[in-house]
Amino acid sequence: MTAVADFEALRRRILRRKRLETLAGLLIFSVLLLVSFQRSQFFSSDIGGDPLGRIGDFLTRMVPDLKGDVLLESRTTTGSLYWWFYDLPVWLKLGWQTVEMAIIATVVGAVGGLLASFLCARNLMPIAAVRFTVRRTLEAIRTLPDLVLALVLVAAFGVGPLAGVITLAISTMGGLGKLFSEINEEVDPRQLEAMEASGTGLIRKIRYGVIPQVLPNYASYALIRLEGNLAGAAALGIVGAGGIGIELQRAITYTEFDTYLAILLLIVGMIFLIDMASEAIRHRLMGLGEAR
Known about the structure:
Blueprint: H1 2-39, H2 51-62, H3 81-84, H4 88-120, H5 128-143, H6 146-157, H7 161-185, H8 189-197, H9 202-236, H10 245-253, H11 257-285, H12 288-291
Helix pairs in contact: 4-5, 4-7, 4-9, 4-11, 5-7, 6-7, 7-9, 9-11, 10-11
Membrane topology: Multi-pass membrane protein
Keywords: Cell membrane, Membrane, Transmembrane, Transmembrane helix, Transport
Domain ABC transmembrane type-1: 95-278
């Protein structure tokens, strides 16, 4: 009975300690959240009178004055769809350029992130100094805001898509490098240990021991990143880094709110298409498509 009583007492002490640790964690998180709200003036900012009314007024000005009886008329007819999307060929061309920017940046960034992930994974890189240096470099890259980096690169390379592609590729490398390294560290170690015991080199260990296990995860994260890069490429055009964002910036500058909405709808449509395509590819790679 003494042993049972001691066990119960030990269990209660452990549970009590765990509850106290959880409560302390919640209190610390709550305090940090409250301080963040206060510092960011989330609730105390003076936003003037009737902010919802101003938002409603802005949204109303974005809606074009379409007329049902001339909806399918030519561009010169006020109130038609073609009149609203008056520069559609140019927007589609710039939209396609945005897609190209996102694809190139994702491929280049994913390859860079993949190589970096092998250098900072604990189970693949035995040299601690190399792991530390690569990890800190990836962290430094992730701290750079895309818009700030794009402004610097636009100043260096000039206005155009090249600055946007380099910006997104660098950002992608920083983000995917961390994710890929964590995936690498979660592979089944038994295969790697068996290959090490047989004297297999690092390259062949990665090729035959790691990549077959994690390739669907690599592809899944890269495709998710592609969707984000498409939205990012559209936004970077505002600072002159190419893509449809240039037209978006022009519409904002000249207060063409209905044009702004038209371009936004095109961007949303592109993101929907990319999202559906990447979702189908991801499901196929994970074998979910065959199960349907």
